[in-house]
Amino acid sequence: MRRTSARGPDAAGRERVLILSAGVGAGHNSAAAALQQACSARADIDEVQVLDVLQVSSVLYRTLLGKGYFVLVEDLPWLVEWGYDVNDRPFRRRGPIDPWTRVNALPVIDAIKRFRPTAIVCTHFLPAQLLASLLLRGVIDARTAVVTTDYDFQGLWLTGAFHALFLAREEGRVELMALGLPPDRVAVTGIPIAAQLNVSPARYTNEPPMLLISAGATGDDYAVSVVRQTLHMRSSFTATVLCGRNSALRQRIEQLVAPAGDRYRVLGLTAEMPQLLSRADLFVGKPGGLSASECMAAGLPMVLVNPIPGQEVRNGDYLIEQGAAVRCNTPATIGWKIDELLREPGRLQRMQAAARGTGRPNAAADVLTGLLDGPSRPLVVTRAAQKTILTESERRVVASDLTGPSSLVRVVDLAGSSTVALLRAEELGDLQKRYATPNGDLVLRGGGALMSLRGEERRLLRAILRGDDALPVRVERPSPPPRILPAGPAVHDP
């Protein structure tokens, strides 16, 4: 396969950014669109392209991964939750990409070769896994980033090679560092959302609270039940109901709320979302990663209904923990739940402040800055190190507590001070035998000798050397997690 030569920006310092997504739900593509928008604000980016990898795959593959997921959500939610928990284990899959996925990835590889990007950003784990394989095989030289689109980190997003991993919240970063991942390769930016330009003034304090009800994403019958229960609320309010492209649902809800006069406004697909988010006082709907991030950036607290098991339940847990949301587990009580919230003095205002504190409106720009200004060499996690991370995470042991041959070590580029490899201690011994200098330093070397190496060592060196003949490095052990010292006894002035 022809090598894509794109080791950095061209002579004029211009970047070519490829954004890879997958249309499993709207969130991943929305994050990709937000990153595309952020690219247009940077003078150093010459061209940007967005590709939904499912749109160039076979119809069967696209149907099973896209539509099949939502069939399971609707009919077998317990199976979705089980699958999420099983795949939450980091590096549960450590081998090569399966043949069926590899065949469906060929059009994506062709698109990468045609576009010749200097940077590639993934907003779904499918292309992220593919890029790791391409980095290790020496097919691409572009900087690669993985951008998660939910508040809780799931192990499926962790790959064996990448330049930067961007997370939604600090707890995910602490988790990955506890597993042994180097802190210089993991950053907390939030979830990329579109810039909110030309938004109308903030909420009107002299008017009844406005509810923004997202009905189109909650399922027809469930959405109708939610709206019906708001008709029984005792508090003064107005409501805007969003039905998206679901015209049949819109007609049902319009008929349902007709007796309430102008209290309700029912919309289909709308371009008014920035204004609606800015003017609303309370959002009612599912805690998808993108919709939740948009609400938080707008300072809009949420009433969570009908979350998808797995990521949306965990998103909701985080928002409730932050004080920016409440959850209603049945539509039968939603009117009462919102009434209780609105009637408690100051509660809505406290939740709005919590939402503003949780929001990260500049996430898309921060992702691009972190990637384009970050290390040029990727981080490679060897398969042996991946096995250690999986095994010890199941035993609930952090990386800094490990000893012996299976413990983890980091290889750091002396020139760039960035971690370029995470491997087992026993693998380090093999590298030291081959690449140690007479004075005890370690200098990794490539050249024609690469072909004589074992497969794993050859992949490691090919990815991190990136065509250079030699790379001086140092070795570090994972540092223990930060400890909080107990507070001392109170001291009272005499």
UniProtKB/TrEMBL annotation:
Enzyme Commission number(s): 2.4.1.315
InterPro entries per UniProt: Diacylglyc_glucosyltr_N, Glyco_trans_1, Glycosyltransf_28_UgtP
Keyword terms: Glycosyltransferase, Transferase
Single GO MF annotation: glycosyltransferase activity
Glycosyl transferase family domain mapped to chain residues: 241-356
Matches recorded under Pfam families: Glycos_transf_1, MGDG_synth
Domain Diacylglycerol glucosyltransferase N-terminal stretches: 28-193
Top class in the EC scheme: transferase
Family: Belongs to the glycosyltransferase 28 family.
Protein name: Processive 1,2-diacylglycerol beta-glucosyltransferase
